[in-house]
Every structure is written in structure tokens, then in C-alpha cells.
Amino acid sequence: MLDKIFNLANRKSAIGSTVNINEDLRQDTLLNTGALQNAIFNSANFSSIATDAKGVIQIFNVGAERMLGYAAADVLNKITPADISDPQEVIARAQALSAELGTQITPGFEALVFKASRGIEDIYELTYIRRDGSRFPAVVSVTALRDAQNTIIGYLLIGTDNTARKQVEAERQRLLEIQEETHKQLQRTNLTLQVSEEKLAVTLNSIGDAVIATDAEARVTLLNPLAQKLTGWTQAESAGRPVDEIFHIINKETRLHSVIPVMATLAHGTVQGLANHTVLVARDGGECDIADSCAPIRDRDGEVIGAVLVFRDVTGEYAAQQALSDQQFYTRSLIESNIDALMTTDPFGIITDVNRQMEALTGCTRDELIGAPFKNNFTDPERAEAAIKLVLGEKKVTNYELTARARDGKETVVSYNATTFFDRNGKLQGVFAAARDITERIILDKVLQDNNAELESAKFMAEKANLAKSNFLSNMSHELRTPLNAILGFTQLLEGGKPPPTPSQVVRLQQIIKAGWYLLELINQILDLALIESGRLSLSREPVSLTDVLHECQGMIESQAQQRGIKLAFPHFDTPCFVSADRTRVKQVLVNLLTNAIKYNSKQGTVEVKCTGTPERIRITIRDSGAGLPPEKLLQLFQPFNRLGQEKGSEEGTGIGLVVAKQLVELMGGAIGVSSTVGVGSEFWIELIRDMTPQLDAVNALTTDFLLQAKGDAAMHTLLYVEDNPANLMLVEQIIAEQPHVHMLSARDGSLGIALARARLPDLILMDINLPGISGIEAMNILRNDPATMHIPVIAISANAMLRDIEKGLEAGFFRYLTKPIKINELLSALDDALKIAGNVH
User: Around Cβ 677, how many Cβ atoms within 10 Å?
Assistant: First the structure.
């Protein structure tokens, strides 16, 4: 029938003149077409709003009423679609279109239909405002309605709710109701044939549902584009065929053929819905889940003349539902497998859900707990209720202790952690809480507190013992250094004295000196190890030139290497190379490694030093050609006092040099390692942090030493030495006696030294620290505070050789701090520096 109307309309347009058509036939055709259009127009899930040319609403279908909350009577001939749209979005659309099309578009209804009025297809998203003020996103398709002369007589706005899809059953029921209501409403609409055809075409092409229309014999009369896509049949191919040939459906679970609702609709004239789990089988065998309904098409007398079948692909919705179900099962599994007792409450503290752990904690079943007050399960209900209020006020609470009481009276201390939760619209839903049994933890905490108290006591005792050890080592160092000072000092004087000693005497003196310096090295290593172990060793980090340090180390060990016939090979640096370290300690480590490489080398062997590096670190490698070490001995290298079986060998050693070296390197942020092959030799290496931009202090090198200065000076210098030990006093007297332009005075205690300094105003003062009466530091402070003596440099000479002693002395104001035993060259160098300063002051 629709084909006949289209043919008549086409003939009328083609010949451009009036054709005599039987009036009854024309009316029947118009009514039948209108009925078909009306049924289709209102059977889908969309809002249809038709306006006149000025935008005033003329048609407002049931879908629009449902979506927007207005009755048709409230809006017909009263408002435009712009009045139910978000005003800011309408303004923004007008601005965007103005920029896009190059013409000024007024915000309002014109912005909604401007493209359609120019014949441009226009589908856009817009926010609709319901009567109650709530909003929802919609996809709107706009079509200009034109008469036979192609003049715009209005606009059709078809909108679909773009909010999350509802469940299939709810959607089906909604469509059933919409179809019934829209069928009744569209029967009241009497539009011209041309307008009806245009609206029908726009509707079928725009809606998001598939539509199949049949005649009274259930033969297909129309398929819209989406129906053609889902069934695999074209309009031309399907026209006149039985609908069950085109629309082939089966039950998803049984795979059996399902009855098409068209037959029941034609037989009873009622709206019919599809059963659940219905699958549409397309022409090519493809399948998709579908839902929706079938409604009758009636003529003007109410007779059923056909049916319209409206359906949609819900495969994605079913998959989403299944995924949601799976996710809910997964979430529940996580909740039930949690070791904590979990629960949710409403904002008033009434339990809404629990897991099995909560059942175990309280001794109640899930059904018994749900609906009961949260506070009832705790020994202190008021504190439990306060916890809920605290969460609601601060959004969360952590480590809130409560004591749960089970049905059988068992009490369990729990740590309560909770937070609020909200729905998708931000409305408070309640509190999610987790209660963890901490009874055992509280017991362990008590044990831990007791243990900590014991550890604190043990730490105090250990620190006390460590301090006693440090004091003992300091005192031991002082007591050993004092006689060593006399032994080494007088031996050095004898070795270089006049008349010179005989060759046999030289050998004996050298043995004394060697043994003395070895004993001093042993003392220093023991002190270093004690300081490192106590964590009291301080390092002075600075840019250190490896060129200078290795040159100094080479000079210190060359004589030892020559005596043993060892060939030395040191690296040449084309450019300066610096590391960030303590200069003294770097040299100490390198000398230790070089000395070992010489001591434990083979006769006529070699010692090779290499430097390699990265932008961040420098590696110094010392390789010898000695006997090498087996793997089992390498593991024992850095153990204190372990000499790896060399205790009875000819080489002297303490077994702590490498231990100190390792700990010093690590304290400077470096690393130390070794590899060795028996019969080939060993290779020790240290890595230190590279310093790329060293800031070296300018060094004003003195061009002459003390003896040259003394020879060139006509003036006589006076030196005062305050010392209570006769041997030390005699040693310095004999050293100074060799300097022709220095006259020495002496005092046996601090008070006499102060008096002598004030009376004679010497150019330089040497001061022992441990003096009878007042100490050397106190005596120095008195001289510093006296205007007459404050300019005199004071050099400390003491057996107190701990690093903290040296730092304390320099901080007190001593010009230099020399430790006993005295090294004559160091003493003369310090005298030289001090006398130069004294000369400048004078």
C-alpha cells in the first residue's frame, strides 16, 4: 500500500498537474500511510518534537513526555526546543556554528536548526532539562520539514537518551508502553501525504532501532536501514516476503525456533513483546541478541491492517550485564577472602552487609547482623558509635581500637579502619569498615617494649663500655707515645749527629727506628679501628688530587721497594684527576696497599699501579707479582688480626691494616676489592667518587725552609718550650741546638711557662698538653687573652694523638698540633711556618 502512495505521489510530481484520483482511494491511502507512520513514529525509544517554522512546538510525543517530564499540553504552541535545552550549550553551539559557517547565528532555536535549514545533515549532542530541573544528555537529529514547493514549514527534532542503558526487561516494558501511547497519539495526527512521507523517511533513518512493517498477511512492506543491516536483507529483496523468512529468531538457550510476535499482534490487535534470550539469525548466519516489541497498524475504522516490529541489538548490553555479574562475583570473592572483618553501614550506623570474618568475629550470621546497629557488637557501644560519627565527620578513620564481643562472650581487640562511600551522584551511602584482630599484636607490642627497654639498657652499657675502651686506648696511646718520643727522637739525633755513627751503629740505630715506627703504626691502626667501630671517626671530605697523592705515596715506598729489588710502575696523568675524599685517609689506604704489595711480592718482582674511571667514579688498581692467594684465603682477607698464616713468617704485620683500609674507603663512599691467582699475583683495587670540579685552596708555597731563613736572618729568634718530661725536653733542646739562630727557653709547668712568656715575649711557644697544675690548653687560652702575648704562635706537642684530641686542640687555637713521637722534619717545618708568621706580626 505504501508503494502505491509513493507511485501516486511521484506521478503527481512528475506531470506537475492535477490528476483525478478517486477521493475514497486517496483518503484510504492517506489514512493507511498515516497509520503506518504513526505506529513507527511512536514505537521507538526516542523523543519526537515537531515545530512550526518559527520553532514553536506542534507535536510532543510520549517519548518526549517521558524523557522531559512535560505533558504535551504544557508545551504545544507555548515554547521552543531551546527552552528545554541547556542555555550555555545553546550559546556555545551558536558561537561554534558562527565560526564554522562564517555567519552570525543568534543563540536560541536558530542555533539548534541552522544547519538543517540549509539542507545540511545535523546530528549533535545536547543536554536536555527536564521539568523537575534534572538534566540528561541526548543525541538530537534535526530535519527540516518542507511542503511540495520545498518551503520549510517546520522542523523535526528526534532525540535519544544517551544515559546508561537500562536493563533489557525494563527497556522492553518501556517500549511496550511507548508504542501503545504513541499509537493512540499519532492516530490524532492528520498531516498531508508529502509531509507524512518525509517524516516517515527521516524517522526510519534517524532512530536507533530496527523497524520492520508488514501488511495484514504478515508480508514485509518496509525495512529501515538498521533492520536491513541486522537481518541482511534489503528493502527491495524483502518486500512482499513473509516476515518469518526475513525475521528469523531462535531461543538463545535451546537454539529452537521462536514464535514471531507479529502473528499475535495481527490476530489480537495488541502489543506483543519478545521473550527473553531471543537471538536474531541474519541472512548470512550471523547472530545477535535482540529485544523490543511489535504493535498493530490500524486504519481509520480501527481495523488491524498490518504490524510494525521494532527491535534492537542488545548483545553489548547482555555482555555488559554478564561482565557486571562477573565483577560482582569477583568483588564478593575478594571481600570474603579478606583476613579482616569487613562491614558496611548506612549513615546511621545500621549494618547493611558483612563478610564471613565479621560473622566469625561476632558469632552471628550475616542475616542476623544486617539491619542491626554496628555498636551492639562491641564492649563499649558509645565508643563504637563515636567511631561512626568520626568517619562521617572526617571521611575516614585509621587504627581506631575497639573491643568486639562475640555472642559467646569472647572479646577480641580490633584495629578499626573505615571510610565513607558515595553513589555515582556523590550522595553519601554509608561507611565501609574493616576490623583487624590485633590481640596478638598487642601482646607482641608489650614484648617488644620490654625487649626495647632491655636493648636500650644494653645499648647504654655498650656505649659506656665503648667509651671506657676509647678512654683506655687514648690513655694507652698517650703512655706509649711519651717514651716512644724519646726513643725515636734521640735515635734520629744519633743517626744524623756529629761525629757520625759507625756503619755498625747505623744498622743498629735503623733497627731501633724501624721498630719504633712500627710500634707507632700499630698504635695508630688500633686507634683507627677503635674509632671506626665506635662510629666516632670523622673525615674531612675535599677534592683530592690523585696525581699528588700517588706521587707522595711513591716517594714514601720507593726506598722499601729498592731494598727488595721491586720494580714500581705508577700511572702518568695527562689531565688533573680528583676524587672526593679525606686526603690523609686516602694516602693511608694507598700506602697500606702498596706496602703489602712490596712485602708479599716475589724477589725482583713488580708492583703496577693503574687508574681507570667513569664519569662518576675512579678505580685505583695495585697489582703485584707475588705468590697469590687461594679463594678460601681471599674470604678471610678483611678479618681483624687474621694474617692468613703469616704469623710465623719473616714479614711483620698486625692483621688489621686491610680491615682499617676497607672501612676507611667505605666511609668515604667508595669500595674495595681484590682478585688473586696462585703463582701469578694479587690485584687490589679501590673505587672513590670522582670530583669533576674541585675547588682547590690556593697554596702559598714557602720558597725557603727554616734553615735557609735562619741563615739569612741577622735577628735571633727565641723559642719557649713548656714540657714536664725531662727526656722530651732534652730531645727538643738538642734539635734546637742545631739551629744557630734560635735560642730556646724552657719551663716545667704551665704557670711558669705563662710567667716566662710574659717576661721574655718569645717568638714561638711549644706547649705540652698534659702539664702539672694547669693544662697546656688552659695555659694557651691565658696567653691568648693577654694583649702582650696574644700574637705569639703556640704549637702543641702531645702524646694525646686521638683524632678528637687533635681537633679539640686546633679548635682551641693552637697554630699546629704535633703528636709524639716527634718527626724532626715535621717539627722543623712547623717552626719555620710559625716563625715566618711571627716575623710578619713583628
Answer: 12
CB environment 436-460: b (16+ within 10 A), e (fewer): bbbeeeeeeeeeeeeeeeeeeeeee
- One domain, residues 29 and 57: yes
The predicted model gives 505-529 an average pLDDT of: 70
684-740: pLDDT as tens digits: 999 999 987 553 343 333 333 444 444 444 468 899 999 988 878 888 888 888 888
715, part of any domain: yes
- Other Cβ atoms less than 10 A from the Cβ of 716: the count is 11
3-state SS of 213-255 is: EEECCCEEEEECHHHHHHHCCCHHHHCCCEHHHHCEEEECCCC
How is residue 588 annotated by DSSP? Answer: H
Write the single-letter amino acid at 522. Answer: L
Examine the fold and report which residue of 409, 437, 465 is the final residue of a domain before the chain moves on: 437
In a domain, 188, yes or no: yes
Helix (H, G, I), strand (E, B) or coil at 534: helix
Number of domains in the chain: 5
In a domain, 309, yes or no: yes
Assess whether 666 and 726 both reside in one domain: no
**In CATH, what number is assigned to the domain containing residue 637?**
3.30.565.10
Closest listed residue to residue 488, CA positions, set 821, 181, 4, 242: 821
Check the CA dihedral 770-772-777-783 and report its sign.
negative
Q: Which of 773, 757, 738, 813 is nearest to 746 (CA)?
A: 757
- If asked whether residues 6 and 59 sit together in one domain, one would say yes
436 — pLDDT class (breaks 50, 70, 90): confident
Q: In a 3-state reduction of DSSP, which class is residue 795?
A: strand
Alpha-helical (H) ranges within 102-242 are: 109-117, 168-186, 193-206, 225-231, 235-238
The CATH number that applies at residue 292 is 3.30.450.20
The sign one gets for the Cα dihedral 541, 697, 594, 654 is negative
- Residue 833 sits in a domain whose CATH number is 3.40.50.2300
In a domain, 701, yes or no: no
Q: How far apart are CA 781 and CA 806, in angstroms?
A: 16
The candidate with the shortest Cα–Cα distance to 590, out of 546, 560, 531, 559, is 546
Q: Are residues 267 and 186 in the same domain?
A: no
First to last CA, the chain: 131
Per-residue confidence band for 648, with pLDDT thresholds at 50, 70 and 90:
low
DSSP of 450-514: HHHHHHHHHHHHHHHHHHHHHHHHHHHHHHHHHHHHHHHHHHHHHHT-SSPPPHHHHHHHHHHHH
Q: Are residues 91 and 118 in the same domain?
A: yes
- Give strand ranges (E) for 540-605: 542-545, 567-569, 578-581
Q: What is the tens place of the pLDDT at every residue in 8-17?
A: 333 333 333 3
**For 332-380, what is each residue's pLDDT tens digit?**
776 777 778 888 999 988 999 998 888 888 889 989 889 989 888 888 8
Q: Which domain holds residue 172?
A: 1-204
Among residues 322, 337, 352, the one where a domain terminates is 337
Same domain? 95 vs 197: yes
Q: Which three cell numbers stand for residue 428?
A: 553519601
Give the pLDDT mean for 133-158: 93
